[in-house]
């Protein structure tokens, strides 16, 4: 295998005993929500060179050859005693197999769920396997000890953190990670990295906040000097702040009034990816997600969650035209215990025929459940467009649930405060953005010039809007300022189906930054996001204007007048 030109390995010392081997790619490697910012990634592995040598978290297949070259040039691989796996997936398994073929003396170290995954994927018994069922210590000799801490979550049921007592380094795997590629090993200027760590949390961990809270409790008494995650820079300078923020981000999820269960099984990870996208859409609305991977959950746990939540979404692959056994069990629990007023949704991936989604849908319909969205089926690996649709479906499902439960979203519409706030007016604009083949747009009136030099604007974007994930620092967009007397805004006021093309039947041309300009607009500003700030139920986005175009020299700006500050 010839290494791709955009991939390399950065090898740097963390301390006198530990090397970080950071496999880097500047491009998006996978169509998963967590890679959505497209800032590249690093797959971090760690070599502990004590009396006995341990290797932690080898990368996936995409980096296998360059990783092996970097590793073997720095250590005699026949001397590696332990290979510690923070989690296991089919992608990483390719590298594990290659290491075992070259160095059969290695003892694999993993959690109890990890051992089960290994045995099922390898379909062979492993003679050198150390299974960590609860917290245990592993000696590397000369008083160099590692503390092995299981940290299971629904997506990573085999999660295992490793704490090096001598160096006070926590190898945290997915916790505290960020998908960003660069030369920076440590987190100098850690505030600028928070947007990436928050995005990773929101897309990967927010749907598993209860379990992340439990993991944080297990880690809270460690005397930490450094966190070494699976992706992104090491956490040193902003360590205490990031730990506190993780607690706050978890609490923001676990304290929500309403909850939706996202329950799934996955044969090759595709259904899991769809589950993550749907869950991400739900959390954006401010509803708690109870994520359950029923391949690793006990029936009683599933029953307790099903009895307590306000909505249920179930996902399944199709295996030989049938439901996996775990999904059959889960479906039986739902039919026996769930309240029939609880709205449901069904999704799944398949490789050939896709009967599973139809079978689940028919059973739920026969039982009298109402559906929050049409069943979703996708063949093989979900595309970026499919995941965008799944996220928007999750958002719509959550918004409908809030309407059903009559959750109060604003102050009293008749109050003086709401009426007074409503008198703040803004120009009617349409924000357009494009990423790969996906274009999106949003009608906006909470827009204002923010700076003279450089010219800059600020816009408030509700957290649940589909365009929100297109407006991170470094992202480009176009602010189309609408003209008075035109009806263009009416097109963008209607309700769009999840994944629908917002620009269908709208005349556009390409801006120099690649985003659409509405040709009927009064003017267009080509902008690049510089900062975004979380403000209650909105994100406040500040962007620098890089280019501008006046499309109608004599037109007037359309203005949005409101009577209440409780809605748009």
Structural class: alpha/beta
Number of separate strands: 28
Radius of gyration: 25 Å
Q: How many H/I helical runs?
A: 13
Task: Label the overall shape.
Answer: globular
Uncertain ranges: none
β-sheet strand percentage = 25-35%
- Average the pLDDT over all residues and give the rounded result: 93
**Sheet with most strands:** 7 strands, mixed
N-to-C CA distance? 55 Å
Percent of residues in helices comes to 25-40%
Strand order of the largest sheet: 1-2-3-4-5-6-7
List descriptors.
568 residues, 7-stranded mixed sheet, 13 helices, 29% strand
Structure commentary:
The chain is α/β, with parallel strands linked by helices. The protein contains 13 helices and 28 strands. The strands form 6 sheets. It has a 7-stranded mixed beta sheet with strand order 1-2-3-4-5-6-7. It has a 7-stranded antiparallel beta sheet with strand order 20-19-23-26-27-22-21. The protein has a 5-stranded mixed beta sheet with strand order 8-9-10-11-12, with helices on one face. Helix 1 links the parallel strand 4 and strand 5 (80-84). The relative contact order is 0.08.
